[in-house]
Structure formats: C-alpha cells, structure tokens
Amino acid sequence: MTSTSTEADKLQLYQSWFCPFAQRAWIGVLEKGIDFDLHEVDPYNKSEEWLKINPKGLVPVIIHKAKRIWESGVILEYLDDAYPDRPNLLPNDPFLRAQDRMWVDHTNKKIIPSYMQLLMGQTDEKRKEAAEKLLQEIRFIFDNASFTKGPFLSGDGHKLGLIDIYLAPFGVRIKPVLGTHRHFEIPSNWSTFHKWVKAIKSHPSVQPTCASDEKLIEHTRKYAENTAQSELATAIRTGTAIP
Ligand SMILES: N[C@@H](CCC(=O)N[C@@H](CS)C(=O)NCC(=O)O)C(=O)O
C-alpha cells in the first residue's frame, strides 16, 4: 500500500477461481505489488447485489477508490495508470507497447475462439479444424514475438508483462484441459512456447492464481459436453463475439 492510500481506497477484486479472464486481473495486482482484498463470487448467479457491482454480471471487476472497473484487459491497463510507481505491465517503448496490444488483439480474435471451439466441438471434423486453427494461431504469436531477452512475450521478453498475463490463463490450461478433454498437444519441438509456459507457471505472480488441474478439468467438462450456459459458451455456439 502506498503511504497516501487509506483502507477505504484499498483495491477490491471480484473474481471466480475457474475464470481465465479473472485470473488476468489477479496476476496483474500481484505483479504490481498492490494491496488488495479478494472476493470469490459466482458470476452465474445474477443477484441484485452482484449486478450492483457489475451490471454486466461478469468477473473480473475491481473497485478502486469507490469506482468500479470491469473487462480484464481494461483492468490491467488501469493498474499501470493508477499505480505508475509500481513495476509496469506494459513496456515503456511505444513500439513494444503496441506489440503487446497487437498480441492481445490476436488472443481475443483468434486464440480464444479456436481454443473454445476445440473444447466445445462435438464432431471429429469440428475438433480437427479447431485444433489446426489453434496451433496455427499460437504459432503465429510465437514466430513473430521479439524474444530478444528472455522467455516472455511482452516487450523484449525479459519480464512478465501485459500480453503474458493476458495469454497465461489459456497457456496454462492447454495441457490439462485440452489435453484431457481433446487429446490436444503442442508439438514438443516448439521450444519457445514450452519455455514460455514453464516461465509463466513458475512465476511468483502467476503460481498463486492457478487452480489445480483436476479442478479445471472437472469445471470445463460442461464445455466439453457442450452443456455450459455461460455467455462465453453461448457466444461460441452461436458464432457471435466473445463477451
Ligand atoms: N471479456 C471479459 C470476459 C469475462 C467473462 O466472460 N467472465 C465469465 C467467467 S469466466 C463470467 O463472468 N461469466 C458469467 C456469465 O457468463 O454469465 C473479460 O475479459 O473480463
């Protein structure tokens, strides 16, 4: 906590243990070293109390200085803006900042849809198509990122940054969730990808936010069986934009 902040200003994070989007916000506050309270909520129960916190009814949400902010990517950028004296999530260089944001866009438009289509696909043909697409889209990032100084995707790769945090929840789910439900695997010779996953999983700001593989596999079974009723599942089923 900074010397000027008070208990009333303390950041409040509303999240759900299973949610990859909420995990981003949690990693972000840990990486920034921000003092915060964590509230575990059930976003599917659209109670009046929950909708007062987020009228969209989605996790994550933060409340900071009595103001609420939702949308995981917006939250991460807000943390940099509101806490400029802490380690930045975005690099300083304009080109490298733009690059992180390019991969964020790619993650939203390409990686998440193909990840979800593979998880929810109900025919061999749909799964094969989604698996090929997912590999191609992951390859695209890892072939084009800078990686000049380390395993991370952000900036020059020396430090965990915005795009790492953005992609990490899906990166750590690929093996347990897609491996178990769909026998999907990333080729063992994709060394930059595997080095990245290893660096992410062991990172002190990521590790405490990871649910066990067993819990994630169990939680995602309803997606694999195509019975999930979340906004994300509906968007994938109907081919509309993800929430
Ligand atoms: N684009 C949003 C997505 C958030 C989201 O879909 N969260 C899910 C949980 S993983 C949720 O709250 N779902 C509630 C629902 O579908 O009703 C973000 O990145 O924050």
From TrEMBL:
Cellular component, GO annotation: cytoplasm
Gene3D superfamilies named in the record: 1.20.1050.10, Glutaredoxin
Superkingdom per UniProt: Eukaryota
Classification via InterPro entries: Glutathione-S-Trfase_C-like (IPR010987), Glutathione-S-Trfase_C_sf (IPR036282), Glutathione_S-Trfase (IPR040079), Glutathione_S-Trfase_N (IPR004045), GST_Omega/HSP26 (IPR050983), Thioredoxin-like_sf (IPR036249)
Annotated Pfam families: GST_N_2
Domain named GST N-terminal: residues: 9-87
Location of the GST C-terminal domain: 93-223
Record family assignment: Belongs to the GST superfamily. Omega family.
Protein's UniProt name: Uncharacterized protein
Source species: Plectus sambesii
